[in-house]
Design brief:
Blueprint: E1 2-7, H1 11-22, E2 27-33, H2 36-45, E3 50-54, H3 62-69, E4 77-82, H4 88-93, E5 98-101, H5 106-130, E6 138-143, E7 146-151, E8 157-161, E9 164-168, E10 173-176, H6 180-186, E11 192-196, E12 199-202, E13 206-210, E14 217-220, E15 223-226, H7 232-241
Parallel strand pairs: 1-2, 1-3, 3-4, 4-5
Antiparallel strand pairs: 6-7, 8-9, 8-12, 9-10, 11-12, 13-14, 14-15
Helix pairs in contact: 2-3
Protein name: Two component transcriptional regulator, LytTR family
Keywords: Phosphoprotein
InterPro entries: CheY-like_superfamily, LytR-like, LytTR_DNA-bd_dom, Sig_transdc_resp-reg_receiver
Length: about 250
């Protein structure tokens, strides 16, 4: 089952395409976004297999969105959907597998899904042969009303703020609408570990570790963060696995 995203600033167009895709047994979950910025935020939380992008969206166009997605670790297969033919050349320069003209016909969409299936098979075979991509995971964040991309490996630690999380880098901090518990699960393989109910830290950015004192803590950059007694054993285990030895003295 293929998970897809439809990004279009016109809801009737989204509804029509979602209905047609829903008739194809190869399609699973269908996500929707009414703008390029909304699509990026959604894909940061919910990676998908394929994205159907309208070209003429205000703000981030479909082409702008495609360029941003090229920096994602899990880049979806791209299909552009538009009312004109003028952007076909640029669409394929962006490695799209198809270019659909509105109104979308059922049989034409069926062939497009077939191209997506073939592209996913090819990507899977390439991954098995060459290993995982060395491209860093990119995260969409909003600062001052502007959406930008930052590298996940630049994040030093994450702080819980209700249903949100604040990502702290060397230069700034960014609020994202993702619970800390979700990031704990999603970023575990990237070297992030929960040290406190309010903090998730990157092991690669630890500069000081004090686990043997009455008040265990870790230091990341200029921030000294508490380590809860409940999470102390799991942190010690992760440190042992990464060959990082904690200080036992205060």
């Amino acid at each position: 089952m293929i998970s897809v995203l439809i990004a279009d600033d016109e809801q009737p167009a989204i509804d029509e395409l979602a209905f047609l895709l829903g008739q194809d047994p190869r399609i699973g979950v269908i996500h929707q976004a009414s703008s390029g910025s909304e699509a990026i935020r959604l894909l940061t939380r919910e990676p998908v297999d394929a994205a159907f992008l309208d070209i003429h969206m205000p703000g981030l166009t479909g082409f702008d969105l495609a360029r941003a997605l090229a920096r994602f670790e899990h880049r979806p297969v791209l299909v552009f959907v538009t009312a004109d033919e003028e952007g076909a050349l640029e669409a394929f320069d962006l490695a799209a597998v198809d270019y659909l003209l509105k109104p979308v016909r059922t049989e034409r969409l069926h062939r497009s899904v077939g191209r997506i299936v073939e592209a996913l098979k090819a990507a899977s075979a390439s991954h098995a042969t060459h290993g995982a991509s060395a491209e860093p995971e990119m995260i969409a964040v909003t600062l001052g009303g502007t959406t930008r991309m930052i590298r996940r490996d630049d994040v030093r630690y994450v702080q819980a703020q209700g249903d949100y999380a604040r990502l702290h880098t060397e230069e700034a901090s960014y609020l994202v609408r993702v619970p800390l518990s979700d990031l704990e699960r999603q970023w575990a393989d990237a070297g992030f570990v929960r040290v406190h109910r309010s903090y998730l830290v990157s092991l690669a950015h630890l500069s000081r570790i004090r686990l043997g004192s009455d008040h265990p803590s870790v230091t990341v950059g200029q921030a000294e963060l508490p380590v809860s007694r409940r999470l102390l054993p799991a942190l010690r285990e992760r440190l042992e696995q990464t060959s990082i030895r904690p200080r036992t003295s205060p």
